[in-house]
Amino acid sequence: MALKYRRILLKFSGEVLMGEADFGWDMKVLTQVALQVKSIRDLGIEVAIVVGGGNVFRGGQVQSKQIQRSTADQMGMMATIMNGIALRDVFESQGLSASVMSAQAVSGVTEGFSANTAQKRLAAGEVVIFAGGTGNPFFTTDTAAALRGIEVQADVVLKATKVDGIYDADPFKNPQATRYSRLSYTQVIQQNLQVMDLAAFALCRDHAMPIRVFDMLKNGAIERILQGEDEGTLVTKGEE
Ligand code: UDP
After folding, report:
1. Measured in angstroms, how far is the CA atom of residue 83 from the centroid of ligand 1?
2. pLDDT tier at 217 (50, 70, 90 boundaries)?
3. What share of the chain is helix, strand, coil (3-state, %, to 5)?
4. Pocket test for ligand 1, best of 33, 68, 80, 138 (most atoms within 8 A of CB)
5. pTM of the predicted model as reported, rounded to 2 decimal places
6. How far is CA 155 from CA 86, 145, 146, in A?
7. For ligand 1, atom 15, which residue shows the shortest CA distance?
8. Is 74 in contact with 137 (CB distance < 8 Å)?
9. Cβ–Cβ under 8 Å, residues 156 and 182
10. Does the pLDDT value for residue 2 go beyond 90?
11. What's the pLDDT tens digit per position in 34-57?
């Protein structure tokens, strides 16, 4: 089977992990994610992961002025570390070799991020989970995904969402909405389409990192993407 990518950066939000609940972890979903990742690894593709923390805590949730936003964001980043170590264990229980690197040091829990070590591990077939976001408040895990994807020289950032791509209108509200198969960075900006937050998007654009938006829980979606088929929406410079 001809494969389009050698190394991918897979980003999914914490919300994916809570399934139908409104907080925490649905073990069925974690197992499903692990099996998806295993099927990608079985194809020989190297997998780096950035996970969000929205199933536990987002900095923006804090309304009280007594807790500063930067503190709240540190709480959010810690939520991503909780997800990272949980995923590592579930991955390992499915026979994958996995490790967590965090942008925020939590002694005894995770090691720090090293692009060099991460690349060596990826090349050796290990799944490397990047937790702790960028390590800085006022950013999101989308920006972490763009940053880490560029740092470890991934071929593409695969951003999993609840919708199977980027549409010209909200497909939940408008049944006529049509999915874009491909877009250029310029089209995304001109048409004001929501792909990632601006910081994340600007990083990808400036470093020509392709972004593929897709629905990870849709049957066969990842496999189709890896074989270069029309699935989700691919955002590139426009010449690829
Ligand atoms: N966060 C942060 N800096 C980062 C990444 C994340 O401060 O570089 C914090 C922020 O408070 C955010 C929370 O961590 O709300 C969880 O991340 P995110 O909202 O991106 O998670 P997702 O929505 O993808 O689950």
Report:
1. 12
2. confident
3. 35, 20, 45
4. 80
5. 0.97
6. 26, 13, 11
7. 58
8. yes
9. no
10. no
11. 999 999 999 999 999 999 999 999
Q: What one-character DSSP code corresponds to residue 23?
A: S
- Flag the least confident range among 96-100, 132-136, 226-230: 226-230
Bridge pairing between strands 211-214 and 233-236: antiparallel
Pocket lined around ligand 1, Cβ cut-off 6 Å: 13-15, 52-54, 58-60, 73, 76-77, 79-80, 133-134, 136-137, 139-141, 143-144
Task: Report the atom number in ligand 1 closest to the C-alpha of 73.
Answer: 11
Beta bridge partners of 51: 12
What b/e readout covers 137-161, taking b as 16+ CB neighbours within 10 angstroms? bebbbbbbbbbbbbbbebbbbbbbb
Cα distances (angstroms) measured from residue 86 to each of 27, 132, 218: 10, 13, 23
